[in-house]
Amino acid sequence: MSARFHETRWTLVSRSKGDDAVSRAALGELCEAYYAPVVAFLRRDGRTEDAARDLAHDFFARLLAGGMIAGADPMLGRFRTYLLMALKRFAADQRERANAAKRGGGRGHVAIGAETTEAGTGWQIADERAEAPDAAFDRQWAITVLARALATVEAELRGSGKGDHFDVLKPWLTGDAGTPSQAEAAGRLGMGEGALKVAIHRLRKRFRAAVKAEIAQTVSGEGSVEEEMAALIAALCGG
Amino acid sequence: MNEPSPDSDPLHGLNPEALLAAAAIPTEDGGAGGSLAPGDLPSMEEIADAFPELEILGLIGHGGMSAVFRARQPKLDRLVALKVLPQSLAATEGFTERFIREGRVLARLSHPHVVAVHDFGESGGFCYLVMEHVDGVNLRQAMRAGRFTPEQALAVVPALCDALQFAHSQGVLHRDIKPENILLDSKGRVKIADFGIAKIVGEEGGDAALLTRSGARLGTAPYMAPEQFEQPASVDHRADIYSLGVVLYEMLTGELPIGRFAPPSEKADVGGGMDEVVFRALEKERSRRQQSAEEFKTQVAGVGTASGSCLEGISRPWSPFEYRSRRTLFGMPLLHVVMGRDPQTGRTREARGFFAFGDRARGVVAFGGIARGWLACGGMAIGGVAFGGAGIGLISFGGLAVGLLLALGGFSVGGLSLGGLAVGWHSMGGSAVGWHAIGGRVFAHQGMGRHVDAVHVAAELGEMPVLTQWLASIYPYQSVLGYLWVPLVGIMYLVPWWTRRRLRAESGGRFQGSASSKAAFWFVLALAMIAAVSKWVLPYSPKNFLPAGRGPSVAGEAIDEGSAKALGRIADLRFLRLKQNGTDWSWPVWNRDGDPADDAESMPLIEASSGGDVETENPEDCWLQLWFEHPDFDRYSQLEVRLVSLKGRALENRDASICSTAWAASQPAPRLLDFVASPGRVGSLPKEVGLQCRYGIGPWKLGRSVPSDFKGQMALDKGCHFAAVGTGSDGKAFVAWTRRDDDRQYDAIAILKGGRRLGSGEWSRGGVEGEGRVEKVSFAVPLDEIVSFQMRSRAIQTVHLSTVLPPLP
Questions:
Q1: What is the spatial distance between Cα B618 and Cα B605, in angstroms, rounded to a whole number?
Q2: Which residues contact A83 (CB under 8 A, 6 or more apart)?
Q3: How far apart are CA B335 and CA B357, in angstroms?
Q4: Is the CB of A237 less than 8 angstroms away from the CB of B208?
Q5: A46 near A192, Cβ under 8 Å?
Q6: I want to staple B324 with a disulfide (CB 3.0 to 4.6 A). Which of A168, B302, B427, B668 is the partner?
Q7: Within the 116-175 window of chain A, which residues sit less than 8 Å (CB to CB) from chain B?
Q8: What are the backbone angles phi and psi of residue B471, rounded to the nearest 5°?
Q9: What ipTM describes this predicted complex?
Q10: pLDDT, tens digit (0-9, with 9 covering 90-100), for B173-219
Q11: Which fold has domain B21-134+193-216?
């Protein structure tokens, strides 16, 4: 991992500003990986699920076609912040265009109908706890990082024929609370409790390394991994 | 890697917050991916070689950036913990210098709750610290062994706060407070380890090689304050407070405060107040956190007491309880109320707050059995202003009052003291002892009262110093004290009552009505007592002590100091009579209204105060004898009267050269002075004459002192010069002076060998008024018995009167 540290996907992209084929491939991989946060942002920004997916597609298409979004400098910081900045510009741009296309100018139209009492339609009282689009993006990002790390670990274990280890032991990844008893788990895996403890320990260790590796792919500056980790913790805490 | 589908659960049902937290937490070996790699871990042999003066006993543990060995110092025969940093660090440029600089600071950090650094340095390519060996476990291990009860968790906090407060006061931040760094020894003592280590190691953050394995920083992320990530350079002591908040939350709930975390009161048996304290410590904005470890400690202590079993006692009216407000002032709770003994230790507790109430209370404003504070009120009150059974303070009131400035009480001792028995520089009371004292029974330098034992006895209040007069003037207002007691007693009862009620409310209990009726009862009782006291005290005034009429008893040297009974009043022409040359004075004597004064009171006075006779050659010359009275006439008072016309001109047809000066030295009733002058001759007597009177009265002002063997010139006053000392023909000592000043009367006191003072006897003078006179006083002892003469002077009053002449007999 350390050997590849300076050659993460994001450092490749940022160094070349997305001009060469290798870096464009790397950007493609990143975008593919972090599709979900982009959709989460657009959903929270007031679009329907379908519209959000559609726009996300357009966004990535433009990004990957080399039309880097002006004003977003990939040399600064992390992939996450870069992507968010680009996405915001893109979303604002899109809205402006959509509004300009309507005759009504900047005002939306609301139908005054009889069916407004149905859930999900009509006026809704603002939910103060609803996340801002940025927060939704960051939160989804953190979840994506975790999901990708989990997937990596799972794939590794399954690859080495220890798929059942993953299935049985994964509850211990989040600590000791609420997990089934270790004796039961040991029974299911057919190993002693001591061996189970070692296995849990290894799984945790592997997972941590995977999370860190995942994060490392999205940062360029040295010393950023733990900062990004902290930022993700903050994002998950709901700011 | 496939694109995660939003429909499936990519997290396998695991809580994302917990998952991320787990990714960030190190296990006990600190073994996150980036920790000290096993290859970097120095072997026991390497360490033993590098530290020949230590016996390396074993590896205690290794974390992100260091390994810790148990070792023995054979010379001192003590166990130590040896913390070794990787050789790669020591090899980093500039690190060693900085390590030594920081190490010095850490080595000076000596506190019972801080793991001591005995030594540090570089040896065998390792930077190392030799630290106190703590035989026990760290908080992480302790928590893992079994969840903490809230009581256990809260018991750890004060020690942590003390240690942090101490370190912060020394300018040292910990920067890495986490359960792994909090050690509990086998005796249950708490010690914080690795103070400042995070800084030493962390500043190498710029080095890429180091960063890749800086698992330590990564691992402690949940404990780090937001600003430690965002602006590491600006981190201050409040980052440690954030970390402390995380540790407390974890101790209480067993979880980390990540995500939308539950308030501690939901997860643990603590009161709602604890939520507020913890949330405050975890504020993102550090200015909204507790601003010092001390404050954190105070707040935790404040809410800690409101939890659990402590509340049960509140239901009983006089049972022990404790209340501590969460709000603080000057680092102490705004209000702290403690009643009864500590149910756990059985010891008396002390209330310590800005406002403190308790059996023992200490604060800026303290109420209690023993109260200490700037305003202290209680059985025993000590403070700036102290009210109490016994009050000691700058100003104190009470049964026994000792006050540096002012004491009021049954027995009062103070600069100014007022009371049943008053002892003070200025004192006033039933019995008063002091330099200046007024009272029923007085021992003083200058005293006044019914029975006075003093060098100087005053007959009137006006003769006492201003402060003593003030003391006498406030005497009737002592009852105000009673009114002061009303609110004080009210506060003393009502505040504990209110806090008890509040505690009950917080604990969900219902407030009992009987308590308020009790409060009302005590309040009314206090009012009644105050009313009774003021009824007795109000009519009591200093007049009750003062002598009626004249004649205070005198002890000591009889030197008339001059009185000031009625200095504003002019002398009163009491009696007069007229006679012709060659006849004797005869009765009746007339009073000013033209009536004969032949009553039993006046006649002996007149007899006693009549001076000598006067005779001139012209048989037609008439003589007018006048008696003047003034309360302040004393044995040194002199009276001169010039008879003039009503228009103030000189009288005609008389021998104007003849007039006299009266003085009262030999008169037993010195308040009456007589004077003889000629108003004219038979046949040409004016019907009415003007009287220009001059007399010296009032207190004396001390002037210069003249040695009895003085032979030179000396100005004694503005208009007065020393003339001579000597022995007269009768063998008596005299002192003489010249004066041009007619506004003042001069006198001298002889200071005898042995310190006794002697007043002057005969007085004589010569010369012309207004142009310089020679005055002489003589003393009843020879000159060689006198050490020096103390000069003194006082004002001469001038008044203008007129009177109709009485008929010739």
A1: 31
A2: A30, A31, A34, A37, A38
A3: 8
A4: no
A5: no
A6: B302
A7: 142-144, 146-152, 155, 170-171, 173-175
A8: -60, -45
A9: 0.71
A10: 888 888 888 888 877 788 998 887 766 665 544 333 333 333 334 34
A11: Phosphorylase Kinase; domain 1 (3.30.200)
